[in-house]
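> call design_seq(struct)
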């Protein structure tokens, strides 16, 4: 189970007179991630380094710091804290003391990790879309099962052979709902599960 952020978060750290300001926000796609980066970078900062993670898709930037000392540690902090669908920007104001490669890795990664550790988390739940077909005599049992398995009705039509419902529910609930409907209807209810559950923010 991974999380995203419930709201934007910030954290300011000072390391040997350099200031590191980490800013993080939930994002839904790469364009939104890059918009966030563009919006929060500070032109007065010495460097604005960043990373974002969206499932298997990710990007990072060292923004002039030695290669691998800023963007990658920020991304590692995102993954290490169990986050997905977020972007993090860490701005640095140079304080006159060089930190060395190891010091930069610790400072950038530490600022990002501290920001995310203190932020309010919001679980990401994989959702599934399913179709349920049932006779009118089983419609009551079907509706009773929906609330028990956090299923939301997204569509409904009635035909001569009965009711056809489109549902969205947490993917982890699909198997239990199928069992419940089978038992409640003596296996008369037909369930079709669409492929590719999609993770989305769950309040």
């Amino acid at each position: 189970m991974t999380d995203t952020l419930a709201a934007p978060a910030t954290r300011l750290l000072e390391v040997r007179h350099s200031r590191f300001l980490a800013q993080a926000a939930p994002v839904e796609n790469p364009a939104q991630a890059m918009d966030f980066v563009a919006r929060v970078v500070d032109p007065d900062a010495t460097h604005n380094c960043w990373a974002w993670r969206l499932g298997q898709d990710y990007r990072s930037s060292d923004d002039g710091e030695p290669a691998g000392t800023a963007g990658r540690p920020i991304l590692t902090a995102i993954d290490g804290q169990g986050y997905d669908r977020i972007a993090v920007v860490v701005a640095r104001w140079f304080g006159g003391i060089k930190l060395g490669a190891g010091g930069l890795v610790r400072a950038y990664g530490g600022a990002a990790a501290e920001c995310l550790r203190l932020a309010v988390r919001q679980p990401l739940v994989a959702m599934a879309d399913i179709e349920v077909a049932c006779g009118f005599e089983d419609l009551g049992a079907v509706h009773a099962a929906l609330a028990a398995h956090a299923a939301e009705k997204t569509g409904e039509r009635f035909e001569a052979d009965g009711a056809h419902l489109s549902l969205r529910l947490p993917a982890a609930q699909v198997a239990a709902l199928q069992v419940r409907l089978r038992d409640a209807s003596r296996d008369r209810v037909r369930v079709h599960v669409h492929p590719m559950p999609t993770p989305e923010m769950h309040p």
